[in-house]
Amino acid sequence: MLEYVLEGDIDGLRVPATRPPRVADKLWQHTCCELFVARSSQPGYREFNFSPSGEWAAYSFTTYREGSPMEIEAPGIQLTRDRGRLALTARIPAEDEALRIGVCAVVEDAHGGISYWALRHAPGKPDFHHPQSFAMELDAIWH
């Protein structure tokens, strides 16, 4: 389970309206929470997009930006909005391996301006796919 929390002037953000849960494309063009996961022992990685709308997308990449959509079980996105706080939770399947992870978000302000947030950015323009953006390492998870 993942939880993303945005704190501050939430009313100054453009947050997508709630929609029926479904797979959707180009969620990253608006406020969206993202997760990048690479197995430490294998090339390639996966990308998960979670929109406050309740929509999601998942992609499997064999190498840098070379991939295609993949099917996942509905991540059960839930959104909680309080004064000065927006929290999104989502669930994805666990991996039984050591992982490198990039946790990031695209945030759109009320005027359409976009900012990019990550645990770590690679040099240059924001690129969540860049290997240097996979800033967190997790040991194998056993369930």
Describe the structure.
This protein is mainly β and 143 residues long. The chain has one domain (2-138). It has no helices and 10 strands. It has strands at residues 2-7, 32-39, 45-50, 56-63, 66-69, 78-82, 85-90, 99-108, 114-118, 136-138. The strands form 2 sheets. Strands 2, 3, 4, 5, 8, 9 and 10 form a 7-stranded antiparallel sheet that branches. A 3-stranded antiparallel sheet has the order 1-7-6, with no helix packed on it. A hairpin with a 5-residue loop joins strand 8 (99-108) and strand 9. The model has no long low-confidence stretch (mean pLDDT 94).
Blueprint of the fold:
Elements: E1 2-7, E2 32-39, E3 45-50, E4 56-63, E5 66-69, E6 78-82, E7 85-90, E8 99-108, E9 114-118, E10 136-138
Antiparallel strand pairs: 1-7, 2-3, 2-8, 3-4, 4-5, 6-7, 8-9, 8-10
Key features of this structure:
143 residues; 0% helix; mainly beta
Brief sketch in words of this structure:
By secondary structure, the protein is mainly β.
Number of helices: 0
Please write the string of helix (H) and strand (E) elements: EEEEEEEEEE
Largest sheet: 7 strands, antiparallel
Give the mean pLDDT: 94
Report the span from N to C terminus: 13 Å
Judged by helices, strands and strand pairing, the structural class is: mainly beta
Binned strand content: 35-45%
Specify Rg, calculated over alpha carbons. 15 Å
Count up the domains: 1
| Strands, count | 10
State the share of residues found in helices, binned by percent: under 10%
Show unreliable segments: none
What is the overall silhouette?
Answer: globular
